Amino acid sequence: MQTTNTFLAYWYYTFPNFLLAAVMYTIIGRVLLSLFFDSDSKNYIMRFFVRVTDPVINFFKPVTPLATAPVVLWLFTFVWLFFIRVALLYAFLLFGMLPARPV
Fold it and tell me: Which pTM does this prediction carry?
């Protein structure tokens, strides 16, 4: 029986999915760290989270309500990214570009 590495065989799905998941969990990390530190903190971990998540948050800022608090905006961004991951999965399933489940 020949085994193939499904991660490499389906890189066109797994790489964007992994990237979106990493950004989503980085946003959750930023939300949790914001309980202890401000966004302009000198803490290098908080600065990393802010630097990584700010471009994504700014991308989704126009499609979220303007009257939201920053933490709520971050959580809305998490939800938008979740919807993109679900849509990506559905699109690849619809076109038959994902591996079949083993029986």
Answer: 0.82
Q: What is the pLDDT of residues 45-79, one digit of tens each?
A: 999 999 999 999 999 999 988 888 999 999 999 99
Inside any domain, residue 51: yes
> How many domains does one find in the chain?
1
- Dist. CA 76–CA 11, nearest whole Å: 28
Q: Is residue 65 part of a domain?
A: yes
Residue 56 near residue 81 (C-beta atoms within 8 A): yes
